[in-house]
Amino acid sequence: MGEVTVRALREVSLDVRGGEMLAIMGASGSGKSTMLNILGTLDRPTSGRYFLDGEPVEHLDEYELSRLRNRKIGFVFQSFNLLPRDTALANVELPMVYAGMRPSQRRERALWALERVGLADRVDHLPNQLSGGQQQRVSIARALVNQPVLLLADEPTGALDTATTKQVMELFCSLHELGMTVVVVTHDPTIAGYAQRVVRFQDGVIVSDERRSSAVGGAA
Prior knowledge:
It is a single chain. With 220 residues, the chain is of the alpha/beta class. The protein has a single domain (21-211), classed as Rossmann fold. It has helices at residues 32-39, 62-72, 88-98, 103-116, 132-144, 162-177, 189-192, and strands at residues 21-25, 51-52, 55-56, 73-77, 150-154, 181-185, 197-202, 205-211. Helix 3 packs parallel to helix 5 (132-144), helix 4 packs across helix 5 (132-144) and helix 5 (132-144) packs parallel to helix 6 (162-177). The radius of gyration is 17 Å and the shape is globular.
């Protein structure tokens, strides 16, 4: 930042197991969002190594990283990031368009994903015709449509009310129970309570790494 060097992460070592549901917690500026960006290959570490699904990725170029993200990572954001002029179906189809998939196959898989999140009856609705919770479920359907090995969620319930938050987190838990690896960044202990493991960051370092035998959402 200007002439000041800020080390967002320092000497961090983190192993996320396949099929795990992990919450990353920490105050603003603790390094948790940088950690998520590295996990999602949106940022590159200045030193060290990162293996995604057993594959070292820090040496890949931008084109290779883009293809890797499309095949192996699903992203869910607090602001939904839906295209306002496209239907729920078209929004969910978008990752498959980038992957070069045939239109008929895109539609079939998008309909499957929307049904999976409980929106089979909203496929032709625009984002402004959906509630906040429904918009977030569309974004989750979009994230899982390519069947990624890793689902990353950055404060996914920050814009939702309590009841809708519970519905969205139970959806994440159901995806985890199907074997998907889920990482959620949050500052909310209630959200972290759904995870089977909670990692806390402070000033760029991991200060605690707690595994639980059970979680609020019923994850094992």
